[in-house]
User: What shape does this take?
Amino acid sequence: MQRRTPVFIVTSSRPRVGKTLIARALTEYFCAQSRPVAAFDVNPDEFKLIDHLPADTAAASINDTRGEMALFDQLVLEDEVPKVVDLGHQTFDHFFAVVREIDFASEVRRRAVAPMVLFVADPDERARQGYAMLKDRFPDLPLVSVFNENVPQIMRCRAEFPPTRLGGEPIGIPALTPVVRSVVDRRNFSFVAYVEKTNDTTSELYEWLRRVFISFRELEVRLLLGEITPQLRHSA
Amino acid sequence: MAKPAVILVGADKGGVGKTTVSRALLDYFIAHNIATRAFDTESPKGTLKRFHPEVTEVVDMHSTADQMKIFDTLSSNNAQLTVIDVRAGLLSTTLRALREIGFLDAAKKSQLAFTVFHILGPSIASLGEIDETAGFMDDAHYILVKNFINNTTFFEWDPATYNSYFNKIKDAHDITIPKLNEMACEQVEVASVPYASFVANKTGEGQPANYSFVLRGYVRHWLGNVWAEFDRVKLIDMVAPELQRKGAARQA
Assistant: This one.
């Protein structure tokens, strides 16, 4: 049986909330399992994901129809290759306007493609509005809020980013100390290479990565459950 | 037997999107299972025929033989509805000819349903066209079309002036054709298929095609909006009221 192709859209309507770090970790989560993965960097001003993972990432621009085609025609492919989209805050509104106009949700429902939007929360009002917009306008897209503990005062605003019917409960990304973060942010740093080399499974970074990968595994299970739940209902 | 219906799509100016509207109409009626045929008066080679070859015939409206081919077969043809895409500049001439052959009288006696889609151009001259057309519209459904598909950024007429022309015609409606993404528009042209086939990712022969999902999405969205305009003016009720009644009876 053909498995549905997962498409993770990592985004926020606010800058500097850790989208690219999460997109990087998610891309490397698939690499760590020796699974092929295709990542897309949709940041208009600076390409960060592509700097870290040039072999697996394509720069994408949705400034014109050609760019939209280059991105969205890939996202609806039923090739079982997981897709990760790092969507910058500058393109958030336009991206979802296109999603709405071309009826992305209906197309992926017809195909074996399972999208999931990971919205990185922020205490700012614009983040709350962005999340509410996605929840209201795209009820067919699984939406999961992500609480990155590196974002100041993030846990105070949990109520503003409630669980959704298709996406489920929020996930958490543990904080990294500034020293470890500075290492991780180096252009040539790879999570997978680090795990392969290190002998210290008690290190801060190893523990961080373990927890983050468990969260990503949980997201995959949710997509799988979303796939089989209608079949279970049908057979009941 | 159902009363035959004729839709005339025309303008007195070229390049305002007559064939676009004719194509959207054919897709709409085919989707509603209304047997439809079309005549393309861009003789000798028609644009409409390129997109809907199975239901379209190219005719010369100046030829009596071709006029007979259209109007003498209205009742005998299997298709209940006839769509005529009138060549640019021939709308008034065609309406005059229809009066001369007694077609407008037949519409007056309710022997057939007659609807005119008048595609407006950007210039103030289009308002004059409404004035000229009004004289033929006593017993027809008259639909004025503002077509924005080719990025028209006009229609900035003074509303009072526009309404003074619009109100000259009893029961006139106006509809708006929104702009379609340029690349999507271009790709449908290249594919030479009906809009509905493009959306369904099918070739003209009904085989699976490989059109861009993004472009299909834009066309689907646009076509949905155009059809919503047809629904708004109750087009099915105008051309095939018995189908509307059947639908209502089914719902009851």
